[in-house]
Amino acid sequence: MKKWQEILVWIKVKLIKPRMTKEPKTQRGCGIYRTTKQYIFLTGYGKTGLGYSMSYPIKFAPIDCDDVEFNNAFGEVFIASNRDKYEELTSAQLIKAMKQSSWRQLHNQSTYVFVRQNDAEITILPAQYKKNEWDYEHSNSSYKRGTNSITQ
Q1: 124 with 142: CB under 8 angstroms?
Q2: What is the mean pLDDT for each group of 10 consecutive residues in the chain (152 residues)?
Q3: Which residues make Cβ contacts (< 8 Å) with residue 78, sequence separation at least 6?
Q4: Residue 139's CATH number
Q5: Measuring CA to CA, which residue among 47, 45, 42, 37 is closest to residue 59?
Q6: Which residues of 117-144 are buried (b: 16+ CB within 10 A; e: fewer)?
Q7: Spatial distance between the Cα atoms of 126 and 128, rounded to a whole number of angstroms
Q8: In a domain, 109, yes or no
């Protein structure tokens, strides 16, 4: 075995493998759709490095709601996302629970933002629906606890 191959094996054994054996941490997340009539708040359940699944609770707020109503709906969904157990929903079950007729119609008639928390950092990922997929390219805003500022 060549020296560079030995180094790669060492890196894998010492650095990568221990990271993979750690239990992934639960992360908070919330998806928010803004339609012409309402806000739809989805609870995002996730583990570090494994992505998110959307599920209950799902909350609705009218588009002309005040800050208190918006904050209550968001807070309830965001706090609920910290649980380890959730109900797996199929795509069809989720769109029905959101009281929407189809994903395509929802995507074309709404804006979307995903809010997630990793340890001390909150990340806000606004997205645009382009060519049948979400574009997060320009969505790298984040908020670090204790700094009172959003960076881009």
Answers
A1: yes
A2: 59 53 71 93 76 87 94 91 81 93 88 83 77 55 43 38
A3: 28, 29, 30, 43, 115, 117
A4: 3.40.1590.10
A5: 42
A6: beeeebbbbbbebeeeeeeeeebeebbe
A7: 7
A8: yes
* Its pTM surpasses 0.85: no
What is the extent of the structural domain holding 37? Answer: 26-151
Conformational region of residue 39, where left means phi above 0, alpha means psi within -120 to 50, and beta covers everything else: beta
Q: Is residue 18 part of a domain?
A: no
What's the half-sphere exposure (Cβ side, CA atoms, 13 Å) at 123? 13
Residue 3, domain member (yes or no): no
Sorted by sequence, the CB contacts under 8 Å of residue 82 that are 6+ apart come out as 26, 28
Number of domains into which the chain is organized: 1
Tokens of 152: 């881009």
Does residue 14 form part of some domain? no
Coil, helix or strand at residue 76: helix
User: Can you tell me the distance from the alpha carbon of 112 to that of 34, in angstroms, rounded to the nearest whole number?
Assistant: 6
Closest listed residue to residue 77, CA positions, set 99, 107, 54? 54
Beta strand ranges found along the chain (DSSP E): 26-34, 38-47, 51-62, 111-118, 121-130, 133-135, 141-144, 150-151
